[in-house]
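[Q] Does anyone have a clean structure-token version of this?
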Amino acid sequence: MAERLIFPDAYAAADLLTFSGRASRAGDGAVHLRAAGGTLLVSAAPLVRQGLLDATPTILGLRVLPIDPELECDLVVEGVTLQGAPGEPSAVQLPDSAVEAPLWAQAPIPRGDWRDVGELDAAALSARGQWGMSAVAHALPIDPGEEVVRMVRGRVWSEPDDDLAGLPRGIAFAALTLGFLAERDEPARLRANGRWTRLTLRRGHVLWRGPAHVGMTEVRATGEAAAR
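[A] Here you go.
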């Protein structure tokens, strides 16, 4: 593993540290770093499903940053372990070792062929995210166990929200938690590619992979009925 990540300026380095700090306080706390061709893709999962009975949707946050064009890497670290490099404001110190990549970091996110499917209002995202956090807090009993917390969070954040074009409310939580909603009047563009939906704001992207189609296909007539 490289000892440092070198950025073209101190702003990009600080951006990574801000994102990783926010990510470390949500989800599993892991940050996926992929660098190639002068671009660093930084992703995290503020919401992540844990186990077959967990209804929590896995929702990712993604930032794209400029970086040293000679650097190539693909690793997952704990967000809290990324630190500024002493005396080098344009560098970020990596931990001594990476961690095993979680399942969400192994899913291949489409790189192209995204189609526009509409847009959402940043103010609506903020409002629904804050409403969801309040709903989780009010639904939890005193001293809840981990299983109860997971059940309540899964129910609130997985629910399709009419104010969010029927997408799970967790997309608002991810955008709010990762600091993507700085401008309340900003339109958030929605794009789709297969099962993936991407919400794009100036400060980053939120990605959700919807469930595969389940159930029976339409019944097709055969024989004489088909010929009519």
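[Q] Thanks! Anything notable?
[A] The chain has two domains: 4-106, 115-189.
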